[in-house]
Amino acid sequence: MPNRAPVWQEIGRYLRNPLKPAILAMSRPDDKKNVLALVRAFGEDPTLRELANLVLVLGNRDSIDALPAPSARVLVQVLKLIDAYDLYGSVAYPKHHTQADVSDIYLYAFQTRGVFVNVALQEPFGLTVIEAAAHGVPTVATRNGGPVDIMATLHHGVVVEPTDSKA
Questions:
Q1: How many Cα atoms within 13 Å fall on the side-chain side of residue 165?
Q2: The three-state (H, E, C) secondary structure of 50-87, written as one string
Q3: What predicted TM-score, i.e. pTM, was given to this entire model?
Q4: pLDDT tens digits, 32-59
Q5: Backbone φ and ψ of 155, nearest 5°
Q6: Which of 47, 95, 126, 139 has its C-alpha lying 20 to 30 A from 105's C-alpha?
Q7: Environment class of residue 143 by beta-carbon count within 10 Å: exposed (0-12), middle (13-18) or buried (19+)?
């Protein structure tokens, strides 16, 4: 898989083996998006850790300290979980991306034969689920909200209870 897009290189610099399938999550760093549950689920499953990488695209930042307090808190907790589970080399969390990079981010998941994950506690609509499907990326999405109808229509993944880490 050639790293043709600059954002692929940015993602790849975090990963020991960037060719492993990507478990991609893309959202703002917000408690409602349930990213911490995703990191815990990845960290607690040795088989998943062996088979895949976790790619967290959580907005843009120059410095965690410059973020609004709730976003900074989520990112600090993500970093603490990466440390607690010793996920270095298996989790990418790039600092910057542009709107023009978004398609390439989904294509990274597609090219690595990965999945997109949206396990928000409640997702009113689920645009990212549609974007992932448009790029051919299978999706695991919350069963709370819009993704239920989207997944039923697109038949491009599964819905799960976002508080069930095994799911």
A1: 13
A2: HHCEEEEECCCCCCHHHCCHHHHHHHHHHHHHHHHCCC
A3: 0.96
A4: 999 999 999 999 999 999 999 999 999 9
A5: 50, 50
A6: 47
A7: middle
